[in-house]
Amino acid sequence: MERPHRAHGGPMAGLELLYHSVAPGITCAQDALLCYLHWKLITHGYRCLGVGDQPSSNERKSEMLPSGWNADKELYTLRYRLKDDSRDLLVKGIMMDGSIIFNIMDPKSQKVADLTLKVADYVNPEHLADFDKVYQNTEELQTQVVCHIVSPFEVAKEPACPREEPRRERNPSPPNPPDHDPLWIPPRHPHGSRQPNWPDPMGPFAIGGEDLDPFGGRRGGMIFDPLRSGPRNPLVDPSSGLPSRLPPGSVPPGARFDPFGPPRANRSGPDPDHLPPPNYDDMFM
Question: How many CB atoms lie within 10 A of CB 30?
Answer without folding.
Answer: 23
